[in-house]
């Protein structure tokens, strides 16, 4: 794993990948590098305008690459269902699902379905997407699901009695809980896949501190100019590039021998450097919490993994 970089990505010809939030940052880089190695890549983006701009840019950077765009708003379960239906109409396989998109430290708000924005987008949207695409994943040999978490999961365990963080909302508390949910989902998904005898690998990754618009988007949208400036300074002087930040995702998605329920991040202090196994909070390996979160997520989204019953 030491020194692993994009040159080590195996040939991806014949494989199909879906990358959520692929119009910028980590998602864009991951999608571009998969396309560069021959994969057929679907950019799953909320904004059609930004998605088309990313599509045009990527086609210029990877001439001859197979890259397409489908709209996906993870904060709207109707959009998630529409995306899955549109995908199934076009593709007969799914080798790689990268659950990358997300929001960070935003003001308290609600998704289209009434869930707290960060939990609803970062966890429930991807939970539903994975469930709806599960039949294709299970029917594709050696498929993988890679879900993006964050070192910020260490900030907070989920509260199964207050998944919306409604009792005492804090933007960073809610973000940390959503990232813990991403890891618990990966843990429970890996357990259920193993129980079903499937060779699909469920793994997680995080980019460390990478310079993307994730840090500034919330502050910019809310007009918090001082916070936006602070984040921009951090991105400029302390963060690694989006290209470097995408390496853990790409490793988890393509490297041989990635174990189920792995958590891959930058080697140096979970901050920067080549991909390595990353520390994780013990509560993200709690079987009972993973099972309960799964059951409640199925109930909240209406999406059930019928082939992966506990």
Quick structural overview:
By secondary structure, this protein is of the alpha/beta class. Helix content is 44%, strand content 14%.
Describe the structure.
The protein has 310 residues and is an alpha/beta fold. It has a single domain, classed as NAD(P)-binding Rossmann-like Domain (Rossmann fold). It has ten helices and eight strands. Strands 3-2-1-4-5-6-7-8 form an eight-stranded mixed beta sheet, sandwiched between helices. Helix 1 links the parallel strand 1 and strand 2. Helix 3 packs parallel to helix 4 and helix 6 packs antiparallel against helix 7. The radius of gyration is 18 Å and the shape is globular. The relative contact order is 0.15. About 8% of the residues have low confidence.
What topology does this entry show?
Blueprint: E1 16-20, H1 25-36, E2 40-45, H2 48-61, E3 66-71, H3 77-90, E4 96-99, H4 117-138, E5 144-148, H5 171-195, E6 201-205, H6 214-222, H7 225-237, H8 242-245, H9 247-254, E7 263-268, E8 272-277, H10 287-301
Parallel strand pairs: 1-2, 1-4, 2-3, 4-5, 5-6, 6-7
Antiparallel strand pairs: 7-8
Family: Belongs to the short-chain dehydrogenases/reductases (SDR) family.
InterPro entries: NAD(P)-bd_dom_sf, SDR_fam
Pfam families: adh_short (PF00106)
